[in-house]
Amino acid sequence: MIEAGSIPLQASGMEAVVESVNLVWVLTVTFLIFFMHAGFAMLEAGQVRAKNVANQLTKNMLTWSIGVVAFFLVGAGVSSVIGGLTGGSGATLADLTAVWSGDSAAWVSWLFGAVFAMTAATIVSGAVAGRCKLRAYVAYTILLAAIIYPVVTGFTWAGGFLASVLGVGFHDFAGGMIVHGMGGIAGLTAAWVLGPRIGRYGDDGSVNVIPGHSMSFAVLGTLILCFGWYGFNVGTAAAPLAMAGGAAELGSFSYVGRVALTTTLGMAAGAIGAGAASFAKTRKVDTLYVANGMLAGLVSITSITDAIVWPGAVAVGLLAGIQLPLVFEFVEKRLRIDDVCAVFPVHGSAGVLGALAFPFVAVDGFALDVLAAQIIGVAVIAGWTIVATAAVFGALKAVGQARVTPEHERDGLDSSEHGVDTYPEFGLGESGGPVADGGAVHAAADEEVRTDGGLANDGGIKMVTAVVRPDKLGAVKSALAEVGAPSLTVTNVSGRGSQPVKKGQWRGEEYTVDLHQKVKVECVVADIAADEVVEAIIERAATGQPGDGKVFVTSVEDAAQIRTGTRGREAV
Question: Which residues cross the membrane (predicted)?
Fold first, then answer.
């Protein structure tokens, strides 16, 4: 038996091993970056209203599905052509279709580029949430994946003029400006063209806070993105092994430790900076700002993570976190642009900050020509993105296809664009009792007469209406089933009474909560005494605190069962 490793590999064999290891590495980090779409979906869904959640999730799925096809058919070729034309090496028509007939390694390389392209595309969806037509967003995604983003990579990673500008080249290791900065600027531009959501600004110019529906979603999405970001940054060190003199040696992994360290420190510092800035502003550490700060720190470090000293990573991350609430407030109150998911301060301005900070924290020290190259690169990418995005959304707006109607916006994009309700079953609880139709009966026909000889409810029909805490709905359902009154109607409502007014905070902005979320339960009874129903509700819904709700009993003049036409008490 021959032991493993006892046969020396020839040069060709070692080359195969090196290539295999490198391809497996690239594919692994590519799949990790793809998983970031789950993070974007959760983060954005958490920051929009409940009536727009399905729309946001759909846009994230279509971004990948439609965008990746556009990037394969057109975008990858456009990037190569732009790189050749602006880099002086020339370009041919064959460059447009090279990826179609590539080999296995070429297609792995294409897929690695595709996940970066789709990241830039999906960032835009968060800025235009709540009012952009799905067809408009899809049209823009196709153009971004096919032309807008590939032009940027053509100028830079594909060997265009920015790759060698001023003899030093624009430095962007993993897309802090090329991907995230570009996506954030595109999102801000699109949001400006579309205009703010209905109710975002008052007639007097005041800013109205529109909180998202789930902080849990937003934080979970943030942590998924942070996990995937290691594929984004560390994965860009895309050649663990290399061949030298017929032997395998360490490839670009020589700096992988620096990338992993500075990525982690930038992320942590971003959260600290945003939390500190939030506390300085409101005396409270805003959860959403901390989450956004982690991402802003990652964005700021992404373009420079391979060639900076570790204290620089902390400094840049802190600045990215601190600028977050300041830039968001400027965009919101000065520019009056409704950037729903704060994509510009998280991706746009943080990406710009990181790129411009490079010469100040670089391993090789400060160099004026490097700073100038970074400024030129940022200006070119930002200028192209603004012009292209404004042209696309401006054209869509001119033909009335950019924004949903006011009626659809008020109803929510889930129903108007997709015909779905993301949360249709808000009444699920701990009941387990009889259902409304065909439920158990409280008493047999011969037991309907009360002990005093009268009929329940004095022979009439009563409606018991209870307004209770949402978390008590399950207990109330069970109570009604136990007293033999399982038929009920439940409605989500909001109102105010004795419960104190509260102050809420969304991204550092305080707002008054004087309408509290409640559930209205309506139960019509005839054979069951209304007093029994009332007592059952009070017993199960009470917490002893203000805001438990109230129960009302009213007389019902008549009732009719639609299926049979039966009228009166028998209909109930």
Answer: 23-43, 64-87, 107-130, 137-161, 173-194, 215-232, 259-280, 287-304, 310-328, 340-363, 375-396
pLDDT of residue 429: 42
Burial class (CB in 10 A: 0-12, 13-18, 19+), 328: buried
User: What's the CATH number where 554 sits?
Assistant: 3.30.70.120
Q: Which one-letter amino acid corresponds to residue 232?
A: F
**CATH code of 283's domain:** 1.10.3430.10
Q: Measure the CA–CA gap between 502 and 500, rounded to whole angstroms.
A: 6
Whether the model clears a pTM of 0.70, i.e. scores above it, the answer is yes
Express each pLDDT in 420-429 by its tens digit.
888 765 444 4
Cβ–Cβ under 8 Å, residues 292 and 324: yes
81 in Cβ contact with 90 (< 8 Å): no
**Of 365, 393, 418, the domain-final residue:** 418
Is 451 domain-assigned?
no
Asked if residue 348 lies in contact with residue 184, where contact means CB atoms within 8 angstroms, the answer is yes
Helix (H) or strand (E) holding 516: strand 516-525
For residue 466, list its beta bridge partners. Answer: 521, 551
Cβ atoms of 345 and 298 within 8 Å: the answer is no
Position 246 pLDDT exceeds 80: no
Tell me the residue range of the domain where 557 lies: 461-496+513-571
498-548 pLDDT, tens digit each: 777 666 666 666 666 667 778 899 999 988 899 999 999 999 999 888 888
Query: Which one-letter amino acid corresponds to residue 439?
Result: G
435, part of any domain: no
